[in-house]
């Protein structure tokens, strides 16, 4: 039994899934456990995320929502073996975001991830929307825009692999409007600044002309168009970036949309009351539907929209590491370590590419400007020469320079069988001052999380659980 809980800027929701796993190996082989079936058995109602103020989440109310949905689903907390709680968007920036995790204690097994920074959220949402699958099946470069209440998360996939991410402070609830009086109750500071720049008359406490609201929405959509290279990027675009924009050193073939606003991009919506949700989400979706975003890109239908960020969690693949591994300190078991994956190009060791890619992708996992512990995953080389081992070790050390002063060990996963010699080489190059874990014969991808159990077979191997967020298909 698996639960996914998404506490976002606009909405909070749950999904329960039943995961079936099977040992695919023969009786005389090391077990290889694969998922053979995943069935979503319950989808909760979608609630507005309760807030005490604009800067503080109402943690007790969130817990009550979660507990009530457990009861509706007929599921007891002790029946849930795994799951993910994702605190996303502007919600992750609230003052008490970390305290919410304490409120959730006891409502699932081992949660996969606590908070998702904008880069990781972009990847999760893109996979939830199925954009990675579209890019792989159609052999193309596909971009997903996950448009929520407070942010738009951007993820670009090429042939199934994520190659770029970005995030903008554009969302459906950055302007809140009373459903009954139509008075504006809240305008995010960046949106107010944008409106003032163009002389658009919107003020808290006043009832705006619909034309003024449509004008500011149009300006927001123009910034989305700039984000994917359809228009020249302006100073206003730079101002609206959450953490970083897309690099755009590639051509985008098609686009998908997810998040709550996406329903009104694909369907359009014929609601007479455009403020029925107390925000500008409907108007934003309609404007995007009629923009060049959907006209100049090949528009693909996403597999999930409002539930893309997390519709299930805890798909497990259990494996055993190779027997040539290195660990300089027995810190096991370690749990819920996110994977930073770098695929080598043309099966060669391109030191600068590995190093620079690692440096960039480490920042995907920063939360509140702090690095999390991560597992660096690389291909490695079959039967490497001494020189190749040295090159690989140097590339990894250079790429992770930003986290070498952190207390946790440097954790490396190599797909090919070279963990022991690579780990020993890295340890030596670090002058034996940094603990190193280097395991091999494990295949992981970006977006996975790993648990490593206590060493077996007199310390020669370690059990590894690879946890992938399970998305609806």
Characterize the structure shown.
The chain is α/β, with parallel strands linked by helices and 473 residues long. Helix 6 crosses helix 9 (281-289), helix 11 (351-362) packs parallel to helix 12 and helix 12 (386-399) packs across helix 13. It has helices spanning 59-73, 97-103, 118-129, 131-137, 189-197, 210-227, 235-240, 263-266, 281-289, 292-296, 351-362, 386-399, 419-429; strands at residues 2-7, 11-23, 33-43, 47-48, 51-53, 56-57, 82-87, 110-111, 141-147, 152-158, 161-168, 175-177, 184-187, 254-258, 298-299, 315-320, 326-327, 334-342, 366-367, 370-371, 375-378, 410-414, 436-440, 448-452, 463-468. Helix content is 27%, strand content 27%. An eight-stranded mixed β-sheet has the order 16-25-24-18-21-22-23-17. Strands 1, 2, 3, 4, 7 and 8 form a six-stranded mixed β-sheet that branches. The protein has three domains: 2-116, Nucleotidyltransferase, domain 5; 119-299, Nucleotidyltransferase, domain 5; 317-468, no CATH class.
For this structure, the CATH topology of the largest domain is Nucleotidyltransferase, domain 5
Instruction: Tell me, briefly, the overall form.
Output: globular
- Name of the CATH architecture of the largest domain: 2-Layer Sandwich
Judged by helices, strands and strand pairing, the structural class is: alpha/beta
Describe the strand arrangement of the main beta sheet, using strand numbers.
Answer: 16-25-24-18-21-22-23-17
Number of helices: 13
Annotation, overall tally of beta strands:
25
Number of domains: 3
């Amino acid at each position: 039994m698996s639960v996914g809980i998404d506490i976002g800027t606009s909405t909070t929701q749950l999904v329960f899934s039943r995961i079936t796993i099977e040992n695919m190996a023969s009786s005389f082989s090391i077990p290889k456990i694969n998922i053979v079936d995943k069935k979503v058995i319950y989808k909760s109602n979608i609630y507005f995320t309760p807030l005490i103020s604009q800067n503080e989440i109402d943690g007790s109310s969130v817990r009550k929502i979660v507990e009530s949905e457990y009861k509706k689903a007929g599921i007891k907390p002790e029946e849930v073996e795994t799951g993910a709680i994702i605190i996303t968007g502007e919600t992750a920036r609230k003052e008490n975001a970390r305290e919410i995790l304490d409120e959730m204690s006891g409502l699932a097994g081992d949660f996969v991830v606590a908070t998702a920074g904008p880069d990781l959220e972009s990847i999760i949402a893109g996979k939830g929307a199925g954009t990675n699958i579209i890019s792989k099946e159609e052999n193309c470069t596909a971009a997903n825009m996950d448009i929520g209440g407070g942010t738009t998360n951007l993820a670009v996939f090429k042939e199934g692999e994520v190659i770029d991410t970005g995030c903008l402070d554009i969302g459906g609830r950055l302007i809140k409007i009373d459903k009954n009086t139509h008075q504006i109750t809240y305008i995010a500071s960046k949106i107010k600044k944008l409106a003032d720049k163009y002389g658009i008359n919107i003020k808290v406490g006043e009832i705006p002309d619909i034309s003024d609201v449509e004008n500011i929405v149009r300006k927001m959509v123009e910034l989305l168009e700039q984000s994917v290279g359809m228009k020249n990027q302006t100073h206003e675009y730079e101002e609206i970036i959450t953490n970083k924009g897309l690099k755009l050193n590639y051509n985008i073939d098609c686009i998908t949309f997810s998040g709550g606003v996406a329903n009104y991009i694909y369907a359009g919506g014929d609601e007479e009351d455009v403020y029925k949700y107390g925000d500008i989400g409907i108007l934003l979706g309609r404007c995007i539907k009629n923009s060049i975003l959907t006209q100049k890109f090949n528009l693909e239908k996403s597999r999930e929209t409002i539930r893309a960020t997390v519709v299930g969690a805890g798909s497990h693949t259990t494996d055993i590491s190779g027997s040539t591994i290195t660990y300089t300190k027995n810190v096991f078991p370690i749990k819920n370590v996110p994977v930073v994956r770098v695929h080598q190009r043309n099966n060669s060791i391109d030191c600068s590419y590995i190093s620079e890619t690692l440096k960039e992708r480490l920042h995907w996992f920063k939360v509140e400007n702090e690095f999390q512990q991560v597992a660096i995953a690389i291909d490695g080389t079959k039967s490497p020469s001494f020189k190749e081992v040295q090159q690989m070790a140097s590339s990894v050390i250079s790429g992770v320079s930003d986290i070498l002063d952190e207390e946790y060990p440097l954790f490396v996963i190599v797909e090919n069988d070279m963990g022991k010699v690579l780990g020993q080489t890295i340890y030596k190059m670090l002058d034996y001052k940094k603990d190193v874990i280097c395991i091999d014969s494990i295949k992981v991808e970006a977006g996975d999380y790993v648990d490593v159990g206590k060493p077996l077979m007199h310390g020669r191997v370690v059990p590894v659980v690879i946890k992938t967020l399970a998305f609806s298909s």
